[in-house]
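sanity check this chain:
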Amino acid sequence: MKATIKIALISLLCTAFAAIKSQAQEVTKPVAVPELGVSYPWTNSQLLEPADLAGMIRSGNKKTVILNIGAVEDIQGARHIGAVSKSENMEQLQKALADLPKNTTIVIYCGCCPFTKCPNIRPAFQLLSKQGFTHIKVLNLPVNLQTNWISKGYPIVNH
């Protein structure tokens, strides 16, 4: 009887360990981890991985609106707004959004610096949220555009 209980317990532990291990392996995408005390207005599901956006661009997806709301290079297909920490560029962003349906998928990116220090990404995201856009994506550039996009050979506009 004791041997049966031991076997059942060992079996249960092995099953639990396998389940935990498989869940840990599912989380393979890097996400921006805020510094202590820093919070983001977006959720992890609203982060878009660079490889995913590059694939969309290469496949010819024209339905997604890509907005460069920083002072960095333009990703192929992006509309250059400029650093929205400047009021004139925030006005440009508002104008760019004026005629878009609220269910448009909009990808915003800055890439000037890490998310924790970026003066542009939060105000742009908050404006989109306040205006009622329902498909907002933040390009996951936790370090910067050079590191997380350009160095990987993803499509960029060459001026």
Remarks:
- The mean pLDDT is 84.
- The two ends are 77 Å apart (CA to CA).
- Residues 44-152 form a domain with the Oxidized Rhodanese; domain 1 fold (CATH 3.40.250.10).
- Residues 64 and 83 are 21 Å apart (CA to CA).
